[in-house]
Specification:
The protein is an alpha/beta fold. The chain has helices spanning about 40-50, 55-65, 70-75, 80-85, 90-100, 125-130, 140-155, 155-160, 175-185, 190-205, 225-230, 245-255, 295-305, 330-345, 355-360, and strands at about 110, 115-120, 215-220, 235-240, 265, 280-285, 305-315, 365-375, 375-384. A hairpin with a 5-residue loop joins strand 1 and strand 2 (about 115-120). It is globular. The chain starts with about 40 loop residues before the first helix and ends with a strand. The chain binds S-adenosylmethionine. S-adenosylmethionine (SAM) binds near residues 220 and 269.
């Protein structure tokens, strides 16, 4: 079926629905008169309007999340009236919200025998919005509530002042440990394609499945990257370094993923405390974009100190490639917008490949591979 996610009683079963398979734009600019029939400004306004109403998406999704719409529909399909009753909400307003969510393919509309609309929650959406799901975005919603809404609202002021520290210096990102507690649980979904690509690279660099090796996951968050690598490499042990408030999440998840015996939490401040030495892999995922250039340079030096002879450093991040081919690639465009998100939340940037190369060279390291993944690039480096 098509992305409109609307199913007629006589049509295809909603089981066939491919979620987000072919998402339609919300403003059909193809219907604008062709050629000179329309002032260019009107055409541009139609396109810009669609960006401006992106605001509606988190508004509607978060409202439904807060009201428990997804939890309720996870129990089974329901009409708007039935949902309004179980959620103690206004019936008409509930119907309007549910129909709006259908525009994002989050709910399927179908009909009962009386012609009343019945809303169905696709399995994938349920898993993505379940509070405790491994790849759930619930943490992202919590983080947006705590931090992002206010941060984006103040972006103009941030640009005016440059997101500087009180002493006028550039600062690294100001996200607090409690905000990280929400955030790190909402970004696990990034890990599987990254680990898939990283595992393949490690194998190319001689990592056999049973190789005895030790890795350090710096700022591990939930530890999802090292834990998925542990599942791939039976001889691997991982040290997950993070602050006290975050490590319980990593420990619990290592148990859930059945790798707790090889996942060792390490409570450390990565600026002020020692990381240990002799690691075959030192991994940084979503860490460099939080830093100032000076701090990024220091991280590269610390990475080399922690590395065993012949070891590899893997940096997974929004790394901008400034060449003719990549200039306007989807990745570069996303990464540059990601930089705005870092700035809005108090510091950091999407740095260029040249900058990474410079920091690595300064630390006695050299890039050996650069791999594209959907929302990151993986930079692999070894000692000179
Ligand atoms: C953006 S999250 C990335 C988490 C994980 N690597 C991932 O990509 O899912 C950054 C992590 O770095 C940790 N972190 C930030 N500053 C730290 C510090 N000074 N010492 C140790 N961990 C820190 C945070 O607690 C958080 O878990």
């Amino acid at each position: 079926m098509t992305s409109s996610a609307q199913v007629r009683p006589d049509g295809a079963s909603f089981e066939d629905n491919t979620l987000f398979g072919n998402v339609q734009p919300l403003v059909d600019t193809a219907l604008l008169p062709a050629g000179d029939g329309q002032p260019r400004v009107v055409r541009a306004a139609h396109r810009l309007y669609e960006h401006l109403i992106s605001l509606w998406a988190p508004g509607a999704i978060e409202a439904a999340f807060d009201l428990g719409v997804f939890d309720e529909l996870a129990k089974g399909p329901a009409t708007a009236d039935e949902l309004a009753k179980s959620l103690s909400t206004n019936a008409k307003a509930t119907r309007v919200l549910l129909d709006g969510l259908n525009a994002y393919d989050l709910l399927v509309r179908t009909w009962d025998a009386d012609g009343t609309v019945v809303y169905v929650l696709p399995d994938e959406v349920r898993d993505v919005l379940r509070p405790d799901g491994l790849f759930s975005l619930a943490g992202k919603i919590g983080y947006d509530r705590q931090m992002a809404w206010g941060a984006w609202r103040n972006l103009a002021e941030t640009v005016r002042t440059g997101a500087l520290a009180d002493d006028g210096s550039q600062q690294h990102n100001q996200i607090s440990a409690s905000e990280y507690e929400s955030l790190v649980r909402g970004i696990n979904f990034w890990a599987p394609p990254v680990v898939h690509a990283l595992s393949a690279q490690l194998k190319e660099h001689g990592w056999a499945g049973d190789k005895t090796a030790g890795m350090l996951d710096v700022g591990c968050g939930t530890g999802i990257y090292s834990q998925l690598l542990l599942q791939q490499f039976a001889g691997l042990t991982a040290t997950g370094l993070d602050v006290e408030r975050i490590l319980p999440l990593a420990i619990a998840q290592s148990e859930q993923l059945d790798v707790a015996d090889r996942f060792h939490p390490l409570r450390r401040d990565f600026w002020r405390e020692d990381w240990g030495t002799g690691f075959d892999l030192v991994l940084f995922v979503n860490i460099f974009h939080l830093q100032t250039p000076e701090d990024a340079r220091d991280l590269a030096i610390k990475a080399n100190k922690a590395l065993a002879d012949g070891g590899l450093v893997a940096i997974v991040d929004q790394i901008v490639v400034e060449d003719e081919v990549q200039q306007n690639s989807t990745q570069n465009r996303f990464f540059r917008l990601f930089a705005a998100s870092m700035m809005a939340t108090g510091g950091g940037d999407a740095y260029t490949l040249d900058q990474y190369d410079e920091w690595l060279t300064g630390a006695g390291l050299r890039r050996v591979a650069l791999i594209d993944t959907p929302m990151h690039r993986i930079l692999l480096a070894g000692r000179d």
